[in-house]
Write a structure and sequence with these properties.
By secondary structure, the chain is mainly α. The protein has 2 domains: about 10-145, no CATH class; about 165-280, no CATH class. It has helices at about 10-20, 35-40, 40-50, 55-60, 60-70, 80-85, 140-145, 165, 195-200, 205-210, 215-225, 230-240, 245-255, 270-280; strands spanning about 100, 110, 115, 135, 165-175, 185-190. The protein binds zinc ion. Zinc ion binds near residues 92, 95 and 137.
Length: about 280
């Protein structure tokens, strides 16, 4: 649902390769080198996946290597990768936190799970490929996606495309005199994009967001309270002291709205952004 947009991804992919290459033993000589496989960008992942489809047995050992990587049996492990990526909210749902916590004395407490975009049983060759490892929450990775295999043709890989651009939350107002009743409004997540539609379905996003309608209700109420004349009043009084300008004030009112490049740092930021835009709050 949100894009993982760090400018350092290529460097991280390279460091990931450096971290694991010596632990992999003899990598079967095939069309692709180990480095190509580990650092393959999303489009190339697909190419490798197609090529390796009938070579499951040859690369099965990679699943074991991935397990070592996640169970702290290697010097460089999943915690190192997670900490580097610093993705604090699940990119598939933008609901659950996926931050990484390691205490000062090195105790590893929590980190995101890593979903295999191309599932590792069907495509073991990609079990440790950087762009195939999607930091994600337990609900999205284990409960919802499970063994389902995605591909660049069917779903949106958060490393390559922004769901943000092709899907939007919308309100359908029912009885506008009682927003706060359950039938006051409906929340819809819509897209014309085939892959985005599949993401919405695979991760049950509409059902999950039903639980967050109270945030939307707050935004609707704020939109009613902060009308133009009240905004002007606040600006006259506080511009330059409490907030910089009108835009700043609008951000403050929408609460939780963050800029594009920070959207994967705060839970529900896509919902807040889309609805705030629809209501004219930002
Ligand atoms: Zn999630």
């Amino acid at each position: 649902m949100t894009v993982i947009n760090s400018i350092h991804l290529e460097r991280f992919a390279h460091e990931h390769f450096e971290g694991i290459k010596d632990k992999l033993g003899d990598f079967p000589a095939g069309k692709y080198s180990l480095q190509e496989v580990i650092t393959a960008k999303p489009d190339k992942l697909h190419e490798i996946a197609i090529w390796a489809k009938d070579k499951t047995n040859e690369y099965k050992f990679m699943i074991g290597k991935y397990k070592n990587f996640t169970t702290k049996k290697t010097e460089y492990d999943a915690y190192d990768l997670a900490r580097k990526l610093n993705v604090n909210v699940c990119p598939y749902c933008n609901i659950n936190p996926t931050y990484t916590v390691i205490t000062e004395n090195g105790k590893k407490i929590t980190r995101p799970e890593f979903d295999h975009f191309y599932d590792k049983d069907t495509y073991p060759i990609l079990a440790l490929s950087f762009y195939n490892l999607i930091p994600s929450c337990h609900t999205c990775n284990a409960t919802l996606k499970g063994q389902e295999s995605f591909s660049n043709l069917t779903h949106i890989n958060p490393y390559s495309e922004s769901f943000d651009k092709v899907a939007k939350f919308h309100l359908k107002i029912g009885d506008s005199s009682f927003y706060y009743s359950s039938g006051g409004f409906e929340l819809k997540l819509k897209s014309e994009d085939k892959k985005a539609k599949n993401n919405i379905k695979s991760f049950e996003l509409e059902s999950l967001y039903e639980n967050h309608k109270e945030i939307v209700l707050e935004l609707i109420q704020k939109e009613a309270i902060y009308n133009e004349s009240y905004l002007d009043e606040l600006l006259t009084q506080y511009e330059g002291t409490l907030f910089k300008n009108k835009e700043d004030l609008q951000r403050l009112i929408s609460g939780g709205y963050v800029s594009e490049d920070e959207i994967n740092k705060r839970p529900l930021s896509k919902l807040i952004k889309d609805i705030s835009q629809e209501l004219g709050l930002i």
